[in-house]
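Q: A reviewer asked whether we had any structural model of the full assembly, not just the individual parts. We don't, so I'm hoping you can provide one. Inputs are below.
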Amino acid sequence: MNSCGRIFRLHILGESHGPGVGVVIDGCPAGLPLGPDDFAADLERRRPRGAGGTPRRETDRPRLLSGWWRGHTTGAPLALWIDNGDVDSSAYDELEHLPRPGHADLVARRKYGGFNDPRGGGHFSGRLTAPLVAAGVVAKKLLAGVDITARVLEVGGERDFTEAVARAREEGDSLGGLVECVARGVPAGLGEPFFDSLESLLAHLLFSLGGVRGVEFGTGFASAHLRGSECNDPLVDTAGRTASNHAGGINGGISNGNPLVLRVAFKPPSSIAREQHTVDLRSGEITTLKVGGRHDACIALRAPVIVEACCACVLVDLMLLAGRLPPVLPRRDG
Amino acid sequence: MNSCGRIFRLHILGESHGPGVGVVIDGCPAGLPLGPDDFAADLERRRPRGAGGTPRRETDRPRLLSGWWRGHTTGAPLALWIDNGDVDSSAYDELEHLPRPGHADLVARRKYGGFNDPRGGGHFSGRLTAPLVAAGVVAKKLLAGVDITARVLEVGGERDFTEAVARAREEGDSLGGLVECVARGVPAGLGEPFFDSLESLLAHLLFSLGGVRGVEFGTGFASAHLRGSECNDPLVDTAGRTASNHAGGINGGISNGNPLVLRVAFKPPSSIAREQHTVDLRSGEITTLKVGGRHDACIALRAPVIVEACCACVLVDLMLLAGRLPPVLPRRDG
Amino acid sequence: MNSCGRIFRLHILGESHGPGVGVVIDGCPAGLPLGPDDFAADLERRRPRGAGGTPRRETDRPRLLSGWWRGHTTGAPLALWIDNGDVDSSAYDELEHLPRPGHADLVARRKYGGFNDPRGGGHFSGRLTAPLVAAGVVAKKLLAGVDITARVLEVGGERDFTEAVARAREEGDSLGGLVECVARGVPAGLGEPFFDSLESLLAHLLFSLGGVRGVEFGTGFASAHLRGSECNDPLVDTAGRTASNHAGGINGGISNGNPLVLRVAFKPPSSIAREQHTVDLRSGEITTLKVGGRHDACIALRAPVIVEACCACVLVDLMLLAGRLPPVLPRRDG
Amino acid sequence: MNSCGRIFRLHILGESHGPGVGVVIDGCPAGLPLGPDDFAADLERRRPRGAGGTPRRETDRPRLLSGWWRGHTTGAPLALWIDNGDVDSSAYDELEHLPRPGHADLVARRKYGGFNDPRGGGHFSGRLTAPLVAAGVVAKKLLAGVDITARVLEVGGERDFTEAVARAREEGDSLGGLVECVARGVPAGLGEPFFDSLESLLAHLLFSLGGVRGVEFGTGFASAHLRGSECNDPLVDTAGRTASNHAGGINGGISNGNPLVLRVAFKPPSSIAREQHTVDLRSGEITTLKVGGRHDACIALRAPVIVEACCACVLVDLMLLAGRLPPVLPRRDG
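A: Here is a predicted structure for the entire assembly that you could use as a starting point for your response.
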């Protein structure tokens, strides 16, 4: 299903080398001031940068095709569309019968009977995160008073990773990385025990991102090594503030008012300029493949703004559900 | 929302100290042979055991209230209900104004305006996993040819953990743990890139379990330390078998036919028989609390069958969606 | 799917001759005062009465299995269960191979491969409207200020129909009827243009009732005979009141604040004590059938409270969506 | 919610006088041969014609923005977009404070706090049926063996209505009409008792069309005048064929294999070139209004292809759910 959310609902569409990529946001409150320029900063953060990114030049300026009039959202479905420019599909021609290891090439071919658009990964491309980031911009604007900030914690296992990225790129290799996101100002009471815990909804969206292999909240996997007497967060006031935050701001699937903390593990990108073994789908023989084209050495570097977008969209949906965001924003004059 | 799934849909209900707990399964194929005895083995596995479990005696034999006739599912909503017996709510009376650290007590009270049933955690209780396990039994019976097996990997950071659990219990403390689940025989092609990746659907369900702090697939968080040349799984045949399985059986959100591998991190149970700090909701003053009653020293010990149930339910749903399970099973005569 | 609604969600279950029938209401606001006695009046209205009803004695007193504590809803899924008493399945034994004309017998058998419970219509029974009425009771209690009243307009084409019903029953026949429902006090703004118009949501629920063959709003089918100059409702104030109400209180799929008016056409019950032609499923030969057992001569007579329930449930859902009903009700002291 | 369907899901978007209108179809089987020319015939049928239609020239040729490659659907979300050309919004400027009787002007203004795009009705415009028709084209192509044909039964109460339409147009007035749709070749077994009866799903979609005031199946409202002995359809073979078809091809909410028959009542269009009373939203005074611009004298004339589209989309969804349409179509060579 290309949809997520119950009230603030995202529908995502497009392919890497087709006409473009986009998102339709249903249930966006009416009256949000919005313009094409609002997307620039976050889409720029998503763009490949420095040594770790792909040289592909993406000029991503969404057009507002629906649900927008006179500088505000109207309450009708909000459609954001980003044209695909600068597309070179030639590098993918030779790959038709040589599925790239670690990629969705082979499963997509099987799932869709070979009808899928394989160019640039098609609908599986990381390019689909551009409309997600655009949706995140809308969500963040709706979340007055909530600050969502993600950052790269480490790359290839190192906290100071600039050099490691450059080295991997030189060697035609790629690196995994870890991203942490903290949301401050999240009201208590968002999420439900079954089945829509706050963790469930966030993880659902985060695990739909390509390359994500793990998601954890608060102390996360390290909690498994702790004792209850160490892991419980002592309450310090009736508002629910806690002395520690091992829970990452969530109890019983529900936000508790303390900072929401989560971490996302990204695997190294699969496309590398080194020889790898694969199978030729025509002959069935094992052969080698060296993926050409332009690729990221580390997608984690571009991921923080995408992770923020996922969090923001989930939080807006839950705040609408809880009646903490109105379906029509108050008019701002002057 | 108390529902999950698109075709094989679970609705969960009940409280720890109310009349009982149950699950309604909508979309279960007609014609599945089923009886009350089918649930015994898995519900027994969920029961507290040995040093790590709570002494509460749970005799969980589901009654089939709907969707069942002459020993088969009928195609109507299948309702499984487990009465709550052996319930002692007295231990919870004193807790009304003393929220237990690490528990949902305070957030539930706020979210539901104090109308929630707090006895035994109410709808937040681990007791709600009993109907989930029952749903898992149904799902496993539908998954002929798929083997789903979960086990405890480690407790409190140790692979040989029997003694550690006994020690924690003696000291009135609790331990976290790690559970791994492997599903073999999962057909390729299950899941979708956006937003219903196989990881998304599994994590959604797993994170609705109490005490889960992290979920990872394949090499998981360790992938973040790898290079692409290490992490990619070389293809060895046209069926998609791979030499390694860092991907945990999933590419691009879709099962690839290799074993599905995931791990779930459980924090130590919050209820411990040691003094902890909390706040008195009446006075606003910080005080201490020692949780009485019967509690698990380590929920991870009971978790494997619950994790299996989550996996089985998701897989059945996806196999129905993919047309790999029919809505009516062939009649078996004799 | 056994579910309807987006926030106030109903899941219905049970069969006519199984253990019972029930409904799980997810998303019911916490804090609604509720008790088993609240259901008596409306369930009594649903019971067969006088000459038009079946003599089956239904003692329908729901048990509250989940989501209820100390006389209030808790915010957890609210489960209402009605045991089936006084069940005599013998009349259905002979019908196994003789599908009753007008009934779901044959399609159910085919759809579910013969695994469906055919006794009393199973999950297709009119008995399933009992939990719907129970859900309607909850919804009506939530709808302070909205008055929903349905009544039988005509039976067998006649406005004064008592005698017609008695005659039909004597002759072993049955009669169709027309029910009108008016809701006053519905706030303007409920519903959406696509695809969840107010008419769409109401019709969805109403057409799931057995025997419903038509649904119309305002002037309904008669609108097709009118000219725009006759059919348009002139506005008389800025609040949106109109001089006439051909629109039945809805414009563009959205409530306009005028009374909501709809009519539902019920066909005559299919079970009649007269000889009818059917086919013997074993021999394939055409034969005759006379349905025994106890049946309604006119279901429309029992339908008003059911139609009210459908309207009430839809309106509660939309008011929650619009933020006009809070997820937690204010506490009433004293 | 701008979505309908469970597997074959439509998301609709756009406004009458914005950049365009479109539909995203999620869950469309991969491998359907499709091209922009496939839409021409049905979109031409939807266009205003002769005396009854608006003179607005609509050149509706959808662009395939997603989910389409090399002449086939790919399995990714299929996006169809129709640009709005030939738009003159000047006629709507004066209406800002004069809500048109019978229109959604006032309710939309209230629901969306005045942020809605009012030009041409915005998202409430009949223009939104163009992408629905386009979705219907896709659905019909998927429904090999099912013939869906709708036609105008009567206009303004007359079966021979050409002259009546011309007269109404001359007089600046409009007419209602009745449309009947028959689907032959629908397999038995589609639909569910609660809550997704075949009637429920069809009515849900049909009632989201502007101007629909009633929907009935088979003998419909006239059933309310019949006796059971007249209304029951005698079975004539084990396949479920019936001698009559009062049920319109549906029993218990499930298709029975006989022709599916439904009728839809359309009210006369609200926009008429005659003086009507309305209220001035600034002064609160009652005033008169004469709607300029180009409008249909009878939308029922354009409606058959739209009604067919609704039926086709529902049937495809149910056939996918029932496993009667595969998620990937077999490849057709040559």
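A: Points you may want to mention in the reply: The CA atoms of residues 15 and 123 of chain C lie 4 Å apart. The domain at 3-321 of chain C is CATH 3.60.150.10 (Chorismate synthase, AroC fold).
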